[in-house]
Each structure stands twice: as C-alpha cells, then as structure tokens.
Write a structure and sequence with these properties.
By secondary structure, the chain is mainly alpha-helical. It is built from six helices and five strands; from the N terminus they run αββαβαααββα. The protein folds into two domains: 33 residues; 147 residues, no CATH class. It has a three-stranded antiparallel beta sheet with strand order 3-5-4. Strands 1-2 form a two-stranded antiparallel sheet. A hairpin with a 2-residue loop joins β1 and β2. α5 packs across α6. The longest helix has 30 residues.
Length: 188
C-alpha cells in the first residue's frame, strides 16, 4: 500500500501546483499582452465605455448595423445556442419571423440575398461580428435613414474589416459595435 499511496500523494501535490497555480498565472501573464490587458477589449464613445468588442449587442434602430440574432438575448451570463435543429418547426418560425422583419426594414433586399447569419443565432448567442456581406446588405437602409452616402458607409466597413489570421485562418469579419460607433462618429 505504501508503494502506491506515497507516489500518488506526491503526484497530486505536483499536479495541484502546476495546474492550479503555475498554469493560471502563465495564462494571466499572456493575457496582459492582449487588447484590454486580459480584461476584454472595451469600446468607448464620447469618453465612456459603450461595450465590449467580444460580446454581441442588440441593435434594432434602422440607423445602425444589426447584429446576429441571439438565443441568449445578448446576455453574457446566459450564453447559449437555440438547441433546435434546422427542421424544428419552432426554429423555422423564428427564422421566418427574422427574415420578415429584415425584409420589412430593408425593402430593396430579396429573401434570397439575406445572409444566413442575419437571421440565425450563433452557437453562443453572443457573436459580435458579421461577415462583410452581412454588413454590406444593410448599407442602403442606413444610408437612407442617416442621409449619408453609401460610399461613406462602405468606407467604414472596409476600414473596420478584420482579415483572416495570417490570411488563411477564419473568415473576414466586421465587429458590429465598432461599425456603429464609427457611424455615430461620422454623423455627429
């Protein structure tokens, strides 16, 4: 018994020090070199924090870019997907309602032109980004409501588009909160 008990206790203590002490400190140290210094990247407007770059927010006014729908109602502490499959009747009703709402506010767009990301929620329900196509399809509505040119809005989309990591990992994306803050700054 001593043959197995003492090595087990030693291994438990060693792993406890490594996994509960050294590893978390190393990760926290690496986090200090990221945007936001490990506390999340905040976005400010007029000197006050308006949100976090990595958590989606709800925008429903026609003068703003709309985010992806959220199954968690944009609450970070309730991160969740819909847990409903693409053939679920309730899910299909939700998607159809989102399509109808989008078409009502974007009359120049046809049903087939709407990117799926604008009518379906992400796995976490908190996705802060859209594809450039998801932003582009909203330009006409925003230009009309704000009374600015589509070229100005396209310039903002271009300026805030993040390319894939190293040019090949992940899709190009645009942060919706950054887009909307840039829009407000443009029209103030």
């Amino acid at each position: 018994m001593k043959t197995y008990l003492l090595p087990s206790i030693k291994m438990t203590i060693i792993l406890l020090v490594i996994l509960a002490g050294i590893y978390p400190l190393a990760i926290a140290g690496v986090g200090k070199f990221t945007p936001g210094h490990g506390d999340g990247e905040t976005i400010s407007y007029k000197g006050r924090v308006v949100g976090y770059a990595n958590i989606g927010q709800k925008f429903t006014k026609d003068k703003y870019f709309w985010s992806r729908p959220s199954a968690a109602n944009y609450q970070a502490d309730a991160s969740a997907g819909t847990n409903k499959g693409p053939s679920n009747p309730d899910y299909l009703k939700t998607v159809d309602a989102a399509i109808d709402t989008f078409l009502k506010h974007n009359p120049t767009v046809t049903r087939s032109q709407i990117p799926a990301e604008l009518v379906t929620s992400s796995g976490s329900g908190l996705d802060p980004d859209l594809s450039p196509a998801g932003a582009q399809i909203q330009v006409t509505r925003i230009a009309r409501v704000r009374g600015i040119s589509a070229e100005q809005i396209n310039g903002i989309i271009e300026a805030t588009t993040e390319e894939p990591l190293l040019g090949m990992f992940g899709p190009a994306k645009v942060n919706v909160l950054k887009l909307n803050v840039a829009l407000d700054e443009l029209t103030k």
